[in-house]
Structures are given as structure tokens and as C-alpha cells.
Amino acid sequence: MPIDVFMTQLSPTMTEGRIARWLKKEGDELVSGEVLAEVETDKATMEMEVVDEGVLHKILSPEGSIITVGAPIAVIREDDEEVADDYVPAGSGMDNPVEIIEDVSSEEAAALGAESAPDAQPASVAAHAAHDEEEADELNLKSAGIFNADGEYDIVVVGAGPGGYVAAIRAAQLGFKVACIESTHLGGICLNWGCIPTKALLRTAEVINIIKHSGDELGIGVSEANPDLEKAVARSRGISAKLNNGIGFLFKKNKVEHIEGYATFETGNKLMVKDAEGNAKQVTAKHVIVATGARARAFPGMDVDNEVVITYKQALAPKSLPKKLVVIGSGAIGMEFAYFYNAMGSEVTVIEAADQILPLEDHEISKVVARSFKKQKIKIITGAMVSSAKNVDGTAIVEYEAKGKQQSIEGDVCLVAVGVIGNTDAIGAENTSMSVDRNTIAVDDWYRTDHPGVYAIGDVVGAPALAHVASHEGIVCVEAIAEKHPHPVDYGNVPGCTYCQPQVGSCGKTENQCKEEGIPYKVGRMSYGTNGKAMGLAETEGMVKTIFHAETGEILGAHIVGAEATEMIVSLGVAKTLESTEAELAHHMFPHPTLSEMIHESVLDSDDRAIHI
Ligand SMILES: Cc1cc2nc3c(=O)[nH]c(=O)nc-3n(C[C@H](O)[C@H](O)[C@H](O)COP(=O)(O)OP(=O)(O)OC[C@H]3O[C@@H](n4cnc5c(N)ncnc54)[C@H](O)[C@@H]3O)c2cc1C
Q1: How far away, in angstroms, is 423 Cα from ligand 1 center?
Q2: What Å distances lie between residue 270 and 124, 147, 152, 293, 460, CA to CA?
Q3: How confident is the model at residue 103 (pLDDT cuts 50, 70, 90)?
Q4: Of 42, 208, 292, 313, which alpha carbon lies 20 to 30 A from 438's?
Q5: Is the minimum distance from the CB of 158 to ligand 1 under 6 angstroms?
Q6: Which CATH number, 3.50.50.60, 3.40.30.10, 3.40.640.10, 2.40.30.170, labels domain 153-187+237-294+422-490?
């Protein structure tokens, strides 16, 4: 008797699946536990294993067809069994929405499945390829090309920040001959003047505040700190130096050639590198990836002199502690420095043009941070448009308009933290056909520019200017060059983190975005105040906020403010990537006692089921 193979329910919510690939062809012997086919649902690609042994007699559903769970997809027979031509598998008549994406006959499909050789290509790559074909129409792609057809290198990366160095290493892993040109330090802004040194300084600030605010309560016998700016800065610089050496080691290990110098494009597809002595040489490559990053922005009227009106670079290595610091801009960078300098003993004022601090964050989260900063005696002025920031006889004078009135404030130092602009001016972009608009290089979904064979990634292609975005773009860019069919970067699920205390971590949509976009949503909230672990840590300030689609239950956004928010947000970002629903997260078991239990309670709260509220 022939055995019918049905579309199996491979996950609790699966109702139908798309046959992405047959791994067996008709006539193949089937051994229990082997993979018979790869099946895609809207959430994942899964493997359907052989359960009944025998010979694959007939494939009923070609690759690309979408089949209802329980409908027949193939027939198995005994080795020497004759199966009648008119054999009809059970369930053949069921209401089956077979939708064939590609018109491939079952024989061809089986042959293709066998030909695409499981051994020759990892299953995940093939599944991505199928997925990619489907997505190709939706992708925004420029034409591909080659920079120097006979180039010495397969790929040359310009800039060794988290975009460039990660792209270079991934390219080497994929077998390309790679060089990375860097004019200053390996690791770019991130390791040397951004993410890493700031976090080292913030640790000092955090411990000072723990001692000041909870030292007595925790019974550690100290409630006053004696901040040492010089030591804190030396520690921070030391960590940067160590990590920057680490990139050099990774380059050696992966055989990425490090070329020291400044790269510029010249006409006629020439990439020139000038070293510190002024010697120039041409470097040839089939593909060039521009990862030149960005630098601090200053608006007209903000006269940065790097002494009194400064940017993040001077703020990271100050000669002395300013008595009064004015910070223009309340994005992550401004807020982190405000927190650090306040903890070290400066009197800090933050001026923000938007009507809330951390303008990109959910409004409720922003309010919690504003309340906390005010408690810490950091002055916040929102809705204030700065018209000028100047060094006037050694004092920073900042003029701004707020509530319809022209006002001014003085500081020993003014930190301008109003964003970054791409390093496009001095790279000879005008000698290429790259399109550059306001210091941002235009790219497609695989980071191709308008110049054949030239790609761009990271801060130089625009917001969000974050290290993890730059690295992700680098990997996707290189994998696309290698035709590995990567998934495009999901800019709707970029984790945003601010590392002051209370910390902020967020992903997906804010509540106001849901409102503006007319998306039906529901919200769950949980406060740190009643969480046992938070009490134990003496960190009871903060909240978790989760936002779900009111009809489908899919997670739309998550926002956390409070201790370890930047670590906790990761789980909700993963949930969003997996398109998890409120029901799935409610079903998931969270360990006790942890701060992450608040995520669970927030999810439950969106369905009025929270236990500890
Ligand atoms: C104070 C501060 C704190 C930050 N904190 C965080 C954080 O916590 N988390 C986060 O995700 N992001 C943070 N960022 C942002 C993050 O640093 C950037 O998004 C990231 O560094 C961008 O990476 P990139 O590779 O695009 O460019 P970059 O890191 O800017 O690297 C570009 C590199 O290219 C080199 N270069 C430029 N032009 C040339 C040329 N023509 N030839 C050769 N080399 C060249 C530069 O010297 C540089 O090393 C912070 C930024 C700042 C300023």
C-alpha cells in the first residue's frame, strides 16, 4: 500500500507552508530522520523530516507551492511496489490553496532539488535564495558593476570603523582577497571616540551615583564619592587603545591587508591612497566599499572652537572638569555626556529643540528620563531653538529662543551634540558617479552606489548612525557581492540604546507612531517599582512598555527605561524579528527573579492579565 505524505504542522501556529525545496527526488530511498523538504511559513524556514521509510514515488507539490497543513504533498512506496497510475492519495480533494510561485513541473522540481545538492550549498542559503527571489521585486536595486576589472583585490574597504572592519573581515571569510584602508585608528569612531570610551566613562558615573544615592541603603558604608576625572578618562582611553589593537589582530587572523593612509577617488576609476608622508599610490579592486563614517555636526551659529564650544572628541578627553556645562541636543550622545559630567560634579543644562528629550523615543519613556535627570539636578530646557553658541572671552554663551522669548545661558564649556554628517567631502566623490546629497551617499538595498563597483555603508549612508547598523550593513553588502542572498537590513527593528542612568532601550514603533500611522494597537506596561530583582538592586526607577497590534497580536514596538534596559531590549528585538505575538510571549517562561520578568508582566498587562500589578 502506498503511503501518503502530508504537509506537516511544523509549528503551533502553522496552517499552511510553502515548499521551498525538495531535498529528495522521485526514486530516492527515504531513511527516517533525513530531511525530505524545506518548508517556509511566514515566520521561518523549517525542515520536514522523513517519518515513513521507503522510496519517494511521486512528488505532488512542486517547489514554490503553498499547501494547507494536512494536504498530501508526496507518495511513498515499498522498493518493489507497483503503484497504480490512478492512485489518489487521501485528502486530495481537500480545500487546498495550492499556489505555485514558479511554474516548475514536479519532475523538474525533484531534479532541481537533487541537483542543488544539499552538500554543495547550505540549506539556509538555498532557502534564502528562494526567499530572495520572492523579495527581488520589492528590493530597490541599482545595477551591479565592477570598479577595476583586473583589480589586485576583490574588495577594498575605505574606513575601518564598525562598518568597514566588519565588512572586510566578512569578505575575507567568504574567500575574497581584501584590503582595508584607514587614515587614523582601526575601529573608527565607535572604538576610539564613540560607543566604547563613552561607556567606560559612564560606568564611572554609574558607580558614583550608586554610592551617592544607595551607598547607605545598601549598607556598604560609603555615601560620598570622590570623582577623579583624570583616572576615569585614562581608563576610558586605555580601553579604546586595547580594542583598536584587537582589530589589527583580527585583520591578521583573517588575512585582511591593512593599508594605512587616506583614500580618494580620482577620475577614470582610480582609487588613490596617500600615506602620512604624503606618498600616493593607486590601489585597484573589483569592488570598493566606502565606509568613511561621519563627524560631529554643528548648525550655523554654533561656532565650534574645540576649546570652549566643543564636540564629543574633546568631551571624551577633557583637560579639566567644567564647572558649568551646557549641552546642546538631547539625543543619546548629549544625554550620556550630561549624565557623566553631572555625576563628576559639573552643573549641567541640556537644551533641546524638540518638545521632549530623547526626541526619537516613546513619549512616556522620555518623561521618565526627564524626571530622573531633574532629580539628579540636571536642568532641561525643551522646545528651545539655539541660534548661537560662541566662545566669548573664554566663556560659552548660548543664545536660544524658547516660549517665544530670546534667552541666553552661560557655561564654562558648551558641548554641541546635534548629530553627525557623513565624511563625503574629501573622498573625491565628485570624480565618480556616486550620488551624494547633504553628505549622504545614496545606496540601494545591497549598498550599491550609482558608480559601478562602488558600495557605501555605515554613517556615510545616513541615519540611523549607529555602530550595529553600520556592521550589519557591511555584512549584507559583502554577502550580496558574494551572491549569498542576504536578507535586507530591517530598518524597522533597529535597537536604539542610551546608556545614561536610567538607561533606555527600544525597538520598533513608538505609541505615537502607531497613532500617526493609524495602526490599531494595544499597550502593556510594567513599572520597576514592584519588581523584586529591581528592589534588590536598589534600581526601582523605570518601566517596560510593550506595544502589540490590536488585531493580530504581533509585537510592534518595545520600550524600556531603567536599569539594564539596553540589555533587556535585546529579547524584545529578537521577538520582533521573529514576528512574535502577544500570546507567544505570554506563553514564554521568564526566569525568576530577574528584571526581564517585567517584560512578561508588561506583555500580560496588554491583555489585562498582569499578575503583579
Ligand atoms: C560619542 C559617541 C557615542 C556613540 N555611542 C554609540 C553607541 O553607544 N552605540 C552605537 O551603536 N553607536 C554609537 N555611536 C555611533 C557610532 O560610533 C557610529 O555609528 C559608528 O562608528 C559608525 O561606523 P562607520 O563604520 O560608519 O564609521 P566610523 O566609525 O566613523 O569609521 C569611519 C572610519 O573611516 C576612516 N576614514 C574616513 N575617511 C577615510 C578615507 N578617505 N580614507 C581612509 N580612511 C578614512 C575614519 O578615520 C574612521 O576610522 C556613538 C558616536 C559617538 C560620536
Answers
A1: 10
A2: 38, 9, 13, 21, 20
A3: very low
A4: 313
A5: yes
A6: 3.50.50.60
CB-neighbour burial class of residue 568 (10 A; exposed 0-12, middle 13-18, buried 19+): buried
Mean of the per-residue pLDDT values for the chain? 92
Q: Which CATH superfamily is domain 502-605 in?
A: FAD/NAD-linked reductase, C-terminal dimerisation domain (3.30.390.30)
Q: What does the pLDDT read at residue 16?
A: 86
Q: Alpha-carbon torsion 95, 99, 105, 111, what sign?
A: negative
- The protein residue with its alpha carbon nearest to ligand 1, atom 48, reads 188
CATH superfamily of 309-418: FAD/NAD(P)-binding domain (3.50.50.60)
Pocket test for ligand 1, best of 165, 180, 189, 193 (most atoms within 8 A of CB): 189
Residue 183 CB–ligand 1 contact under 6 Å: yes
Q: Whose CA is nearest to atom 15 of ligand 1?
A: 466
Tell me the catalytic residues.
Answer: 592
| 3-class DSSP string for 147-193 | CCCCCCEEEEEECCCCCHHHHHHHHHHCCCCEEEEECCCCCHHHHHH
The position carrying cell 550622545 is: 333
Contacts of 140 (CB under 8 A, 6+ apart): 444, 445
What is the rounded CA–CA span in Å between residue 259 and residue 182?
6
* CA 239–ligand 1 middle distance (angstroms): 16
For 31-82, the pLDDT digits (tens) are 887 889 888 887 677 778 888 889 999 999 988 888 988 889 999 999 888 9
Q: What's the helix, strand, coil split of the chain in %, to 5? A: 30, 30, 40
C-alpha cell at 337: 555626556
DSSP secondary structure string, 323-346? SEEEEE--SHHHHHHHHHHHHHT-
Question: In angstroms, what is the span from residue 459 Cα to ligand 1's centroid?
Answer: 7
pLDDT of residue 13: 65
